[in-house]
Predict the 3D structure of the following.
Amino acid sequence: MIRVATFAGPGTAPVIREVARPQVPKNAALIQIGACGVCGTDLHILKGHWPKPLPWPFTLGHEIAGVIVERGAELAEDFMGKPLEVGSRVMIPPLMPCGRCHYCVHYPQNANKCLTPVYYGRYLGFDKAPHLWGGWAEHVYVDLDMLPGTKIYKLPDDMPLRLGALAEPLTSCIRAFARAQRAGGFGYGDTVVIQGSGPIGILAIAAAQEMGAGRVLCVGAPEEPRLRLARRFGAEATVDIEELKTPQERIARVRELVGGFGADLVMDCSGHPSAGPEGIEFLRDGGTYVEMGQFTDAGSIETSWHRICAKDISVLGSWAFTGNDLPLGVDMLYRARDSYPFLDMQTLYPFDEDGIARAIADAMAMRTVKSTIVPCPELLQ
Ligand SMILES: [Zn+2]
């Protein structure tokens, strides 16, 4: 039997249930989970913010890093053509583009907007709760014949699974900066201000530097544990929004810190609808504003949004990532593993009902940067 954490609906406590270990057909795999993060999207789902019906009770968790423990004979390669074996370390992302719809075929750079995405390694014919998909579980199961859009990404053999569990959120940051690069709005040596100091904001500080930023600043809260970690990741200064309570104070502080005419690039990783009008005032005229995220509350139009015009800035949206972005996330984490205190982002929780409930509560209260559930601790050795 395989133990999985389930939720009966928004606001409910996790309940661990058991699923029969499946037979693994020729193009499928059973993946044992070493670490799985708690994401802002999970928190939104658990607060009841998801706009569409969900198949409660189901298993959450999509920042998955694990090890293949059973593999069908024909599942020989990952999405990038790397060989898969029993024992291979892998990550699987949420929201995998199908590869077949109009967007996937005609606009591969925008396959993040796939019309029929594959979620959470979910598979047909095994769709009664409790499910065997979602990473807050001992195993996930994927079947590429049932859902051909499913993508598996091999991790380097010596990559800790804790690091692998950060590949998905880091990839979102890389794609957002790559969008700005392609638009001519992010160049070598540029000064970047990150709005937000949650896990995405922290990883964006690393991605900005890896992709050529000269100076990086971060606006967020709370000081402990988040802003302190932002500085350890290389932010030269942080601005505490709990200390400076008005946008005017924060704009003045950021502009003083940045100097000159303002930042070249501001990236909003905060998910707060009011961040945009404030953030564009951090920019020099002619700068670039990136609104990035996936499940974000942003969307309300503030009156000062006309400043986009007055300041002649470029505004870009970046939503999640495509199947071809993820290897960049794995590679950056692996290459830069000794350059940033990645593992210090994570607070680890055991895979039991109390541990999962605490992981969620601590993430919601911003007591952690990245609550991370550890279903199979032996895999982290
Ligand atoms: Zn598609």
Residues 178 and 186 are 8 Å apart (CA to CA).
